[in-house]
């Protein structure tokens, strides 16, 4: 028969092993205390009630720790077997103590850590077998147990197993509900991200959209106010775009928009952000520390677009007009855009495919 290993996190293995050590410590303390009050021969009590049983307990704990370290695939059988062994030693050494057989509940309690029905049933079955074996092999224990007590213990053991099985079922049900809720939350979070992406990104160009532009412009204005920094806004418009649509159709117009968007995306440096403002109009938020670097960057944008040719439109050359507005303290995002738009209008009015800068 192939053994199906049951895993248990190291944290819980350590807790169970620590509990086994505590059992040995408590047994030593309780039996040592009993030695002070016993009417039996103290030497005999010390040997048979304390030393020998305690040695057996420590031997089981040590062997269990070694098996858990080197035979992880046996861990469920090891811990349940150890719990039965500890219980058996304590019962034999103290068979006259009332309710001592209740320590046979220890394997059941250990099995609960595994959260598996088969481990619980294994612990229950081995616990019953250990109890029956002790009754058969150790007559003094049998003499102390009346038939009614034996039946009562087996009934309690069976009832305890049933209750724990019910708790495990309930735990498994709650785990499934939690997993289902977690999966649903993850799905909702992914859908929320997708919706937010759709709300922020232009579907045709792949650039951030009109709404995202104003959000980012507001952030940059706040940063500039707080740090007394500077940045620039460029508003770009594809020249003669209406005639392109009229002559070649909207499909070619879409190709032109994508080509310009790809060009802007490729020219961005860290901190630059390109947007499709709407239609054939784009915006760029960027920061260049000097007028010279600002002029060089925007000129590189104009030239890169000017080099575009659209094969689907018989090698059509694309150009853009650009209006640049530098940050002005006290302006809001709408006034900033109006400044860039006025500069763009001037570029269009004075011949297109050129740059007009306002500061």
Automatic annotation (TrEMBL):
SUPFAM superfamilies referenced in this protein's UniProt entry, alphabetically: Nucleotide cyclase
CDD domains assigned: GGDEF (cd01949)
Ranges of residues in domain GGDEF? 229-359
Q: What is its EC number?
A: 2.7.7.65
Spell out the PROSITE patterns in the cross-references. GGDEF
Pfam families, from UniProt? GGDEF
Q: Which GO terms describe its molecular function?
A: diguanylate cyclase activity
Q: Which InterPro entries match?
A: Diguanylate_Cyclase (IPR050469), GGDEF_dom (IPR000160), Nucleotide_cyclase (IPR029787), Rev_trsase/Diguanyl_cyclase (IPR043128)
Q: Where exactly are the transmembrane stretches of this chain?
A: 12-39, 45-67, 74-93, 99-115, 120-138, 150-168
Which UniProt keyword terms apply here? Membrane, Nucleotidyltransferase, Transferase, Transmembrane, Transmembrane helix
Cross-referenced PANTHER family: DIGUANYLATE CYCLASE DGCC-RELATED, REGULATORY COMPONENTS OF SENSORY TRANSDUCTION SYSTEM
Which NCBIfam families does the protein's record reference?
Answer: GGDEF (TIGR00254)
Query: Which protein is depicted?
Result: Diguanylate cyclase
Organism, scientific name:
Paenibacillus aurantiacus
């Amino acid at each position: 028969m192939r053994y199906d290993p049951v895993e248990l996190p190291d944290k819980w293995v350590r807790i169970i092993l620590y509990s086994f050590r505590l059992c040995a410590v408590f047994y030593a303390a309780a039996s040592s205390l009993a030695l002070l009050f016993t009417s039996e021969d103290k030497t005999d009590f010390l040997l048979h009630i304390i030393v020998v049983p305690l040695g057996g307990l420590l031997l089981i704990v040590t062997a269990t720790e070694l098996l858990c370290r080197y035979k992880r695939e046996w861990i469920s059988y090891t811990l349940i077997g150890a719990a039965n062994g500890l219980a058996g030693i304590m019962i034999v050494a103290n068979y006259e103590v009332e309710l001592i057989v209740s320590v046979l509940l220890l394997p059941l309690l250990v099995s609960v850590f595994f959260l598996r029905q088969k481990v619980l049933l294994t612990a229950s079955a081995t616990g019953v077998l250990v109890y029956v074996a002790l009754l058969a092999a150790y007559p003094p224990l049998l003499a102390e147990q009346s038939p009614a007590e034996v039946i009562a213990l087996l009934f309690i053991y069976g009832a305890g197993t049933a209750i724990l099985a019910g708790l495990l079922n309930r735990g498994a049900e709650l785990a499934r509900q939690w997993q289902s809720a977690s999966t649903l939350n993850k799905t909702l979070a992914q859908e929320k991200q997708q919706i937010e992406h759709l709300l922020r990104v232009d579907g045709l160009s792949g650039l951030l959209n009109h709404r995202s532009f104003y959000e980012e412009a507001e952030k940059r204005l706040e940063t500039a106010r707080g740090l007394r920094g500077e940045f620039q806004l460029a508003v770009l418009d594809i020249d003669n775009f209406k005639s392109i649509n009229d002559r070649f159709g909207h499909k070619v117009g879409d190709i032109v928009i994508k080509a310009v968007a790809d060009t802007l995306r490729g020219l961005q440096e860290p901190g630059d952000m390109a947007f499709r403002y709407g239609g054939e109009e784009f915006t760029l938020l960027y920061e260049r520390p000097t007028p010279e670097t600002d002029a060089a960057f925007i000129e590189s944008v104009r030239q890169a677009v000017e080099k575009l040719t659209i094969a689907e439109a018989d090698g059509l050359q694309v150009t853009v007009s650009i209006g640049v507005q530098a940050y002005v303290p006290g302006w809001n995002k709408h006034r900033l855009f109006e400044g860039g738009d006025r500069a763009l209008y001037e570029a269009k009015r004075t011949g297109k495919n050129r740059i007009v800068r306002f500061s």
